[in-house]
């Protein structure tokens, strides 16, 4: 049985992969500016110390599901200080690892800026409720449930792709070309972040396949979005799923499955007994998830049919 590498050993062995992917990322990442995407001229002063107009639900024509998803996505992005702390603690602040941590944080910061400015200019959501939700969510912070670097790399590989899909679908459901353009821009960043982390974990599979397989299985079978701790997340998730923005089918077929295929988890050789056990657990879980996704789709279709009949 091969020896599992320590976290320090993994950081050292993967440093050159981080540097290569950091250079690639910088070469392909497009510089963009949040202020260019926001229709500030559409905005009006809100009520309060400046004596503007109070927000009303009819101020925006964006569907409720899109509003809910925009708020969930924004509050998730708002928790960036906690995410930065987690990855900086794990990956360090020196060398290529540290350079990536700070670059990633700076790029993620733009997402909250552009989404919030759009929501305020378009009056898509209640600004008072949004600020109260931000305060509550950030006061809770975020702490990863994964104790190893490999688990954290696996988590962000899936999470960045999940976020990309959620942003893109929210833009489409919004019915607003401005919103869709903004979220497509944000999603492009998330895709590049996913590629970075996915490539790193791919290199980890080459270094220590059984150890990495165990980490991937642990994450896939317990995955939750980082916003899961926000108030009312379960109810909001149902709204988002019923609108087809992000649901079990998308999670299974467009997030987990393509990343696992990219890593060729079912073609890996040289796994020890623990690695083979982890792969078997992973495949069993994926089969179960597929069944759960099908059942959800059936329930959703039945609900939509009942609503259409009542209408």
TrEMBL record:
One of its GO terms (molecular function) is stearoyl-[ACP] desaturase activity. GO terms for biological process: fatty acid biosynthetic process. Binds 2 iron ions per subunit. One of its GO terms (cellular component) is cytosol. Gene3D superfamilies: Ribonucleotide Reductase, subunit A. Signal peptide: none annotated. The keyword Metal-binding applies. Fe cation 2 binds at residues 108, 160, 190, 193. Fe cation 1 binds at residues 77, 108, 111, 190. Keywords: Fatty acid biosynthesis, Fatty acid metabolism, Iron, Lipid biosynthesis, Lipid metabolism, Metal-binding, Oxidoreductase. Its cofactor is Fe cation; Fe(2+). It comes from the Bacteria. Belongs to the fatty acid desaturase type 2 family. PANTHER family: ACYL- ACYL-CARRIER-PROTEIN DESATURASE-RELATED, STEAROYL-[ACYL-CARRIER-PROTEIN] 9-DESATURASE 7, CHLOROPLASTIC. Homodimer. This is Acyl-ACP desaturase. It comes from Acrocarpospora corrugata.
């Amino acid at each position: 049985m091969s020896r599992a590498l320590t976290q320090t050993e993994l950081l050292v062995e993967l440093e050159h992969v981080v540097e290569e992917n950091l250079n690639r990322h910088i070469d392909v990442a497009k510089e963009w500016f949040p202020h260019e995407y926001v229709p500030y001229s559409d905005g009006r002063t809100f009520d309060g110390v400046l004596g503007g107009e109070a927000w009303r639900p009819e101020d925006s024509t964006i569907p409720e599901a899109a509003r809910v998803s925009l708020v969930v996505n924004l509050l998730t992005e708002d928790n960036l200080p906690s995410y930065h702390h987690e990855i900086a603690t794990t990956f360090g602040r020196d060398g290529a690892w540290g350079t990536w941590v700070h670059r990633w944080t700076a790029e993620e910061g733009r997402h909250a800026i552009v989404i919030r400015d759009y929501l305020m200019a378009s009056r898509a959501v209640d600004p008072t409720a949004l600020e109260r939700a931000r305060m509550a969510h950030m006061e809770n912070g975020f702490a990863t449930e994964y104790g190893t670097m490999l688990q954290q790399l696996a988590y962000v590989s899936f999470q960045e792709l999940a976020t990309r899909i959620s942003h893109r679908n929210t833009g489409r459901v919004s019915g607003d070309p401005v919103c869709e353009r903004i979220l497509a821009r944000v999603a492009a960043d998330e895709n590049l972040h996913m590629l970075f982390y996915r490539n790193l974990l791919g290199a980890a599979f080459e270094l220590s396949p059984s150890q990495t397989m165990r980490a991937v299985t642990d994450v896939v079978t317990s995955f939750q979005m980082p916003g899961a701790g926000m108030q009312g997340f379960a109810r909001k998730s149902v709204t988002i799923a019923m609108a087809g923005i992000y649901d079990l089918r998308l999670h299974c077929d467009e997030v987990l499955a393509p990343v696992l295929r990219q890593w060729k988890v079912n073609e890996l050789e040289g796994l020890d007994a623990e690695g083979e056990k982890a792969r078997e657990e992973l495949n069993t879980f994926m089969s179960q998830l597929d069944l759960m996704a099908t059942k959800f789709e059936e329930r959703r279709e039945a609900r939509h049919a009942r609503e259409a009949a009542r209408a």
